[in-house]
Every structure is written in C-alpha cells, then in structure tokens.
C-alpha cells in the first residue's frame, strides 16, 4: 500500500466530503489517503470513515481504511510541534493587522487590496505579512487561518505599551480630537464594508474612534462576567502624537470613574466597532475575545462560553 498524507488544521465537514469525492474519482486501490488534522469533529470523522478515507486526529484518534477493512482506535495524542516562526510572523502593525483580518473572515479570506484598505496598510506590507503567516503554518494555502493556532499567536503578540500616569484633556482639547474623540460611530458590519468605505490613512482618521473593551465590553456582549461598580473601564483609542506608544491611566467622566486608555496594536481595533450602551462604541467581539484570552485564569474560563452574535468563534 502507498500512503498519501493530507495535512489539514481543522477541516470542516464540507471539505471532508470533497476529499472523499476526490478519493473516489481517482480510485487507485494501492493508495491509502490519510487525513492528518489537529482536530476533527465527529461529523468529519464519520464522513471520512464511511467514505473510505483514513484519518488521524492528533488529539488521539486513528482510523485506517484499506481494502474494505477499517481499523479505528484511540492512540497517544501527537500535537503538532511548537512553531518558533509563529512568534516572528505575528509581529508589528502589519503582522497583527493581517492576522486579525484573517480571523475576522476564517472561511472566505479577503484579498490583499481589501485587507490593505481596511487595516490602513500598503499592499506590499499585506502581501509580505500573509506570506510570513503562511510560511509559519498559521495560514493555509488559500490564506485561511489555521485555528486556533493563529488566534493564540495573536493573543501572544497583543502587547500594550508601557504604562504611564497622565490625565485626559477636556473634550474640547485639540489633542484629544486629533486622537479620535468619536464615541458613536462610524460603525461597520465587517471587514468588507470597512474596506469599501476606507480611504488612505490620515492624522484624523474618519473611520476610527474610541472603543470600549475589557470586562465592560465583554459583559455588554453577554459574557459570563461580573463587573464591579468601581472597576475601571477600558478604551482603545486611536493613536496620534498624544497617544503614540503610550498606555494611559486616567480619570474621565463627571464622577471621576476610573478608566484605562490603550493604544491599539492594529488600526482595525479602532475601526471595526459596534454600537454600545449609552451612546458609546464597543470594540469588535474578536478584540474582546483576545483580551479575555490574555488572562490565563478567569478570562480563559469566560472565553469558553463567549458566543457573541455574528462572529466566528475562532478561539475554539
């Protein structure tokens, strides 16, 4: 017998049906196709096994189908070895921006032009970043994200700058206006609508604004989280000279509620926003999920049941 290994990350049932069809069309009895995947759903396993295609789920399930005989058993897990190139691929504004764009549309990836316009990057930067992510096995040949590896790589790279103490200027201050003082829009349903509306980046980005993140945003999306009355609200704020490379602790609001202002690792974090309570804007659910994942304790626990509407759960 000849073995043909088909490596996949997390093939969906539809892709498994395609693999079965291809195996039947070729019809070479000497060749045993083995799908090796990081994770296979029960439905995907059933489709492959009944279709005569062998599989190996790296979590510890092996099925060999050969000459009308099938052998299936639990085996020792064999997770994919750690990839040192992953930490290098998701680095800098372009690496994080392109990775975030891929996670926003995991099944139908956006092209270079759309990603560049939405993320405020050049076409060259997007092409180079996508090539690095593919070489690091975080994107497949069609530039679809390998999950949850790409999500975890973004979580590891999602670093905020060093904290400094400061005060937020009054709403009329020109520095605050230049940083993007808009709380109530514009809002975009996804990367595609943002790409269609976006223009070249300028100091006063008309597509960006403040976005509430952290525990308060997670609670607004229905996450299983309890927010204390005195807990600080977190805001991702567009960068300019006032906020460049700065993590700002500040007091804002008429009653002096504690707040934490964060400079965004990617322009998408302050462009893709959703309407929030009391006329505010919420960070995209994916951004909120990334922040939850950065907490190895309670945050990870909340993320397990975090199911915001109209968002692919790329953290699973």
Description of the molecule:
This protein is an alpha/beta fold and 316 residues long. The chain has helices at residues 13-26, 42-50, 84-89, 92-104, 112-119, 123-135, 149-157, 174-178, 191-197, 214-220, 268-271, 285-293, 298-304, and strands at 2-8, 31-37, 54-57, 61-66, 69-74, 163-165, 211-213, 233-236, 247-252, 257-262, 273-275, 281-283. It has 13 helices and twelve strands. A five-stranded mixed beta sheet has the order 1-2-3-4-5, with helices on one face. Strands 6-9-10-8-7 form a five-stranded mixed beta sheet. Helix 1 (13-26) packs parallel to helix 2 (42-50) and helix 5 (112-119) packs across helix 9. The longest helix has 14 residues, at 13-26.
Main traits of this protein?
alpha/beta, 12 strands, 18% strand, elongated
Summarize the structure.
By secondary structure, this protein is of the alpha/beta class.
